[in-house]
Description:
Blueprint: H1 6-13, H2 35-38, H3 43-54, E1 67-70, E2 84-87
Antiparallel strand pairs: 1-2
Amino acid sequence: MCDFSFGQLLSHLSYNRNLRAGAIVGSGTVSSQDWKQVGSACLAERRALDLLEFGEIRTDFLRYGETLRFDVVGADGQSMFGAIEHRVVARS
Length: 92
């Protein structure tokens, strides 16, 4: 698995793009190197990791009634932005 720092991503992006102050750059999901213990940041990523590790997808898609909780914690263990929770519901 390859890991690139955000600085490396910016360096590569600026190779042939004129980045200016105020440019908004996103990197997609941010995952932990310790994903086996803490989980993955993206369902598509989790399913791809299943394929790499087991040769098959073992992680199901979300089902109605399930709740997702997202949180980013700093080195001090404190939430950086506050947790976000979403419950999967059927469209009415």
